């Protein structure tokens, strides 16, 4: 009997050690944060925009790990979130625009020339048979099956109300804090119950009633709730996956009084002071979570992946001339130019070299296999074809580079009622330093060398006809491989040509 107990003890002990050897994983996702909206420079030098922001905890995370200077998401939110949760490229999952809170309601603004194709405007789904959704195996479901405590905190926006994935619990999260079908908060202010109007239950942030009427900012409330949930999990000895998905720094630009005045004192406009305070509040959240990890001796066995869901907002609700907020990058959110898709990305954790920089171009599609790789989930079965690639080789070697890797974007929709060339209605591809942009409305191709021209100011389409043809053919192959849907002409009902058919 004693021998049996000893054997059981060893077995239990071994299981305990195995459980502890699994790293914790945090995805820290920021909404609408531009590549420049931080005091961490992601270009070769600090810019005046970098100098405006104060993000000491992003600086701390950069010292603790690797900075990716060529990281990308999709041009708007839901496509990025679905790619992250499924590993699918946007052209394959066909959730090509942001999803409405109301089921069966596309979000495309009308256009005079084009109609959007049929797309999955109800978002993603863990179940088959839900109209206009992509049925896929979600990342948190696989992590939960691997023994992880899976925690969702903040913005979800995976699917419309009336479909399963409107509730993060349906896609494998064990606990959900404030995640719904809403794509932004009605208000960031606790004294307003996180609602713009008292009866706003559609956009009002849920699950935070304990903070109603209190002087607390939404970013802070979410952080406190996330840390409390992690503390509750500690006795279980289970590794955790925290998807910390902030509503900041999306509209509305409510005033975070903790940080606002310092930016006014620096001479910023009221709008830009509010925006900068939103960014700093987000950064404090990152620091609070890092402090929790260090205090509880969890930091050395925890990965943190910091990223934004699209480029920075750069239209009229920001101060100054439109599309200047992300310079030197061109345009902003909603665009297939660099300002709309290039995002800040930092990664720290076991075997990630400290204070390192990778110039490898990577995509939000890559997060799915990378996180599973971090968790030690070597074999898994998914309903979907996973387009992303595990980034571990780059995380363990800052000098490693793959110039054959292909990044693909597809946005056959009209995001909003603005009409800027390159915003909405387009497809794009990057391979090596070359980037091809296909403008759907005019059926024109633009070619850029990003190494020499990060601002996409010098279109080389005419100067490099051989390269243009090669890239157009490759983009066509990649779109067809993923069964990408193309918009149609209003006048004829015919689809626009593929890139290799442009004359």
General description of the model:
By secondary structure, this protein is an alpha/beta fold. The protein folds into 2 domains: 373 residues, Alkaline Phosphatase, subunit A; 96 residues, Arylsulfatase, C-terminal domain (2-Layer Sandwich), CATH 3.30.1120.10. 27% of the residues lie in helices and 17% in strands. An 8-stranded mixed beta sheet has the order 7-6-8-1-9-10-2-11, with helices on both faces. Strands 12-13-14-15 form a 4-stranded antiparallel beta sheet, covered by helices on one side. The longest helix is centred in the middle third of the chain and has 26 residues. It is globular and about 60 Å long. The N terminus is likely disordered. This is Sulfatase. Belongs to the sulfatase family.
Secondary-structure topology with pairs:
Layout: H1 2-21, E1 24-30, H2 48-52, H3 56-64, E2 65-72, H4 77-86, H5 90-93, E3 114-115, E4 123-125, E5 133-135, H6 139-145, E6 149-154, E7 175-177, H7 218-233, E8 240-245, H8 260-265, H9 270-295, E9 302-308, H10 338-341, E10 342-348, E11 356-363, H11 367-374, H12 392-395, E12 406-411, E13 426-431, E14 434-439, E15 444-449, H13 465-481, E16 488-489
Parallel strand pairs: 1-8, 1-9, 2-11, 4-5, 6-7, 6-8
Antiparallel strand pairs: 2-10, 3-16, 9-10, 12-13, 13-14, 14-15
Helix pairs in contact: 3-9, 7-9
Keywords: Calcium, Hydrolase, Metal-binding, Signal
Family: Belongs to the sulfatase family.
Organism: Runella rosea
């Amino acid at each position: 009997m004693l021998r049996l107990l000893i054997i059981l003890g060893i077995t239990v002990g071994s299981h305990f050690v195995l459980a502890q050897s699994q790293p914790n994983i945090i995805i820290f996702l920021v909404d609408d944060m531009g590549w420049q909206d931080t005091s961490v420079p992601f270009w070769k030098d600090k810019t005046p925009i970098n100098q405006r922001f104060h993000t000491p905890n992003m600086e701390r995370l950069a010292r603790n790990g690797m900075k990716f200077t060529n990281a990308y998401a999709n041009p708007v939110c839901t496509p990025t979130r679905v790619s992250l949760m499924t590993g699918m490229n946007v052209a394959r999952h066909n959730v090509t625009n942001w999803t409405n809170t109301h089921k069966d309601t596309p979000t495309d603004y009308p256009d005079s020339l084009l109609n959007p194709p049929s797309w999955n405007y109800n978002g993603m789904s863990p179940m088959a048979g839900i109209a206009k959704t992509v049925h896929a195996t979600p990342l948190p479901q696989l992590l939960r099956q691997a023994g992880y405590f899976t925690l969702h905190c903040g913005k979800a926006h995976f699917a419309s109300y009336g479909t399963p994935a409107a509730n993060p619990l349906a896609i494998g999260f064990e606990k959900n804090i404030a995640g719904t079908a809403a794509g932004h908060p009605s208000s960031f202010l606790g004294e307003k119950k996180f609602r713009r109007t008292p009866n706003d239950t559609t956009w009002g942030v849920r699950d935070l009633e304990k903070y109603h009427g209190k002087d607390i900012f939404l970013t802070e409330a979410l952080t406190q709730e996330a840390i409390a949930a992690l503390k509750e999990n500690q006795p279980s000895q289970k590794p955790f996956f925290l998807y910390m998905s902030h509503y900041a720094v999306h509209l509305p630009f409510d005033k975070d009084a903790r940080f606002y005045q310092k930016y006014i004192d620096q001479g910023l406009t009221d709008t830009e002071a509010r925006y900068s305070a939103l960014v700093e509040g987000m950064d404090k959240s990152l620091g609070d979570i890092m402090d929790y990890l260090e205090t509880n001796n969890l930091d050395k066995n925890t990965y943190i992946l910091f990223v934004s869901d699209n480029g920075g907002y750069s239209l009229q609700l920001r101060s100054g001339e439109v599309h200047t907020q992300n310079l030197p990058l061109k345009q902003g959110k909603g665009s297939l130019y660099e300002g709309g898709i290039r995002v800040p990305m930092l990664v720290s954790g076991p075997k990630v070299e400290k204070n390192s920089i990778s110039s490898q171009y990577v995509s939000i599609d890559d997060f799915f296999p990378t996180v599973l790789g971090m968790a030690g989930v070597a074999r898994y079965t998914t309903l979907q074809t996973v387009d992303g690639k595990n980034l571990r080789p780059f995380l363990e070697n800052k000098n490693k580079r793959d110039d054959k890797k292909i990044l693909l974007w597809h946005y056959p929709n009209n995001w909003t009622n603005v009409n800027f060339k390159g915003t909405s209605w387009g497809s794009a591809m990057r391979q090596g330093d070359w980037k091809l942009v296909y403008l759907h409305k005019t059926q024109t191709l633009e070619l850029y060398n990003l190494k020499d021209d990060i601002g996409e100011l010098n279109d080389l389409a005419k100067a490099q006809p051989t390269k243009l043809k090669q890239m157009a053919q490759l983009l066509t192959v990649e779109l067809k491989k993923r069964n990408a849907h193309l918009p149609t002409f209003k006048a004829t009902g015919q689809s626009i040509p593929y890139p290799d058919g442009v004359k």
